[in-house]
Every structure is written in C-alpha cells, then in structure tokens.
Amino acid sequence: MTTTELGILNLEEMVDALGHDEHMLCDRILSISSVHGRIDPPEEMKPWIRNQFGSVEATLEQKIIKVTNQVTLEGTLYNWLRSNRPMWRGSDINIAQELLDMGYDPLGDPFTGTPADEFGRVEGEYCVTASNIAKFDGFHGLIVFNERHPLKFTREQVQDYFATGDRWAARAHETDQSAIYYLMIWNCLWRAGASLLHGHAQVMLGRDLHYPSIERLRRDALIYGAQFRSNYFDDLYTVHQSLNCAFERKGVRFIASLTPVKENEIILTTDQPRDVLADAIFDVLTVYRDKLGVTSFNLAMYGPPLARTSENWEGFPTVVRIVDRGDPKSRTADFAAMEIYAASVVAHDPLRLAALLRQEVAGSG
C-alpha cells in the first residue's frame, strides 16, 4: 500500500514506521490506539444492513481508531461506518430561493436595520460592521457582507471581511484600552448556529482574559514548552506533517487535524500578515464548498492580544479553526452527548482530507 492509499485505519502502522525522533515526538503529543467492535445481527436484519452499509461483512467486525491529544486532551473516535448510519433528513434546500422567500432581511440594509457601535461603523469594500443587538461581550459586532448569499464569496471579498474585522478591533481598542482579546467567528447557515441567512461574521474584543478555550490552549502550550523546551504549535505541525496530515504554504501551516472537534476540521497557524492568512482561508473554504460539497461550517480566528499583558503569549501564533457542520437538511444533530461530555465521534478521514487539500491548495494562492 502506498502512502497516498493510507488512511486513518492505518494510523498505528504509520506511526510505527516513523523514524526514532518522529516517533518519540508523536508519542509525546498523541495517544493512538484501536479497538474492534463486533456484532451478531439476526437474519431478518441483514437485508437492511446490506442496503444501509453495502454489505453485512463490513459491519461484523469494526475497527475504531482512538486519537487523543495528550497536551490539550482533545480526542476523537473514528469509524467510517458512522457516515452511513440512518439519518432523518428534510427536503432539499435552495439557498437562493430561501433568500427570496425570507421576507424582511435585517441585514439587507445594515445602515437602517442594525445598530452601530459606540465608535460608529467600519466600512470595507464588500462589507460593513454593525453592533450585535444581543451581545455576549461588551464589544460584539457583525461583519455584514454586501453579498447576501452566504456561500458566494471571492478571494477579494474574504480578504476584505478579515481586514475589516481587524479595523473594527483596532477601533474598539482605541475606545477601551483594556479591551485587547480579539476573536472573529463565521457561522455559515443555521446548521452552524447562524440565526440569519444573510452572509455575515461576528467579531468580539474582550477584557481581562481571552475566552476560556483559547486561554486553556495558551496554558497548555506554556506547560508543554516548560516541560519539553519546545514550541507546542511547531511540534503539533511536525507530528501531523510526519503522518501526511499537514503542509506549509507561504508561511501558513495547513493541518488536517487528527483530533478534530467534528468532520473535516482544518487548523491554520501562522505569524504572517493577515492578507496571507486570508488567502489561505479563502482557499480552504473553496475546497470545502466546491470539492467537499460543504454548505455549513464554523470558523474561528484568534491569536495573541492587541497589547501587552501580564500573561505569557510567547510562541502563540494566529490560529484559525474551520469545521464542517454537515448537511443542513439533516434533522440529526452532529453534536450530541458524546461530543459535549466525552469525545468527538467522526466518520471522515483526515489523511484523505489532507491529500485533497495538498492537491488543491499547496501550489495556489
């Protein structure tokens, strides 16, 4: 079997084939194991199994791969059969028609349909900011796209959305010097938590500490650095690269996460300027939309604070995490008790995702 044919089910063998130093680094960050689950279906059930999963034999003994990040304690359980399990689905969705049928669009004219922030609005070429009317932080705004359709975006538009977000954060920081922790999120469609269909992102600038998940990552990375005298983010990338799950382009590292929060998660890390990162984000979203058929996703971007703080942010890059939220027609939630309280359960293969990304993205941008 060639390296291009290897998948997540071969992960243990891939680790065993690594050189000594790479193997030690992988073992330092990731715990990888497998277990087999077996079933004994009644004869009456076998026609349904064949129809649902292709064959009865494929279900009789199932290999589950368990991967845990031992630094952050993020963990994922892989079983490709999960992608074929029964799902409740609604009718097909036509986003363009939904936009026509929605009636009043509060983002249709943000100058009359949305409030401004106390420092006013920031206007980009393809977007404008608004103040979120139902806030979850003191500075909490919207980047309202001129393009209503949430899946119609160009490279220039994505560049402008992120540049406008940066300008919004700078204005908010000028208004309150203690507000320094910037977060930008993009929830696409209701499946990903968007309450409005019209394309938009959200921006926050917090005080005191970064948001808890980000602060926890900072502390985990610091503890790792103190213990091993090495940068956690560099080592995370090296481990994924050694397992064919990562590559670098123009100073941006692309990682098909081996411990994704859910399907097809991609992590970008960089110290490059925002326009270089925005190019990478556009390319990933284009692969999502045009190659994987993803219509609903979550994106988050965060990094070190805008001003000096008492806590140590040395070696912490700008981080972007993007995850596929599944079919908006599905009536089955992708997050359930396992994901909320235990570990993520995933059907996709990050090695195949990385191969697609490398093919479509590595030489572009």
Which tags fit this structure?
single chain, 365 residues, alpha+beta, HIT family, subunit A, 2 domains, 9-stranded antiparallel sheet, 4-stranded mixed sheet, 13 strands, 33% helix, 22% strand
Residue runs with pLDDT of under 50 for 5 or more positions: 87-91
Q: What is the β-strand count?
A: 13
Helix content: 25-40%
Main-sheet strand order equals: 4-5-7-6-11-12-10-9-8
CATH superfamily of the largest domain: HIT-like
Distance between the termini: 32 Å
- Note the run of SSEs as H and E: HHEHHEEHHEEHEEHHEEEHEEHEH
Strand residues, percent:
15-25%
Largest β sheet strand count, sense and barrel closure: 9 strands, antiparallel
Helix vs. strand class:
alpha+beta
Total count of domains: 2
CATH architecture of the largest domain: 2-Layer Sandwich
Radius of gyration: 22 Å
Number of helices: 12
The outline comes out as globular
Please identify the top-level CATH class of the largest domain: Alpha Beta
Mean pLDDT across all amino acids: 93
CATH fold-level label of the largest domain: HIT family, subunit A
Explain this structure to me?
By secondary structure, the protein is of the alpha+beta class. It folds into 2 domains: 3-91 and 210-361, HIT-like (HIT family, subunit A); 104-206, HIT family, subunit A (2-Layer Sandwich). The protein is 33% helix and 22% strand. The chain has 12 helices and 13 strands. The chain has helices spanning 11-16, 20-29, 46-53, 57-60, 95-101, 110-113, 155-175, 212-228, 232-242, 274-290, 337-341, 350-361; strands at 30-38, 61-69, 75-78, 127-131, 139-145, 181-188, 200-206, 246-249, 252-256, 266-270, 297-302, 318-324, 344-346. The protein has a 9-stranded antiparallel beta sheet with strand order 4-5-7-6-11-12-10-9-8, sandwiched between helices. Helix 2 packs across helix 9 and helix 7 (155-175) crosses helix 10. The chain is globular, with a radius of gyration of 22 Å. The two termini are 32 Å apart. The model is unreliable at 87-91 (pLDDT under 50).
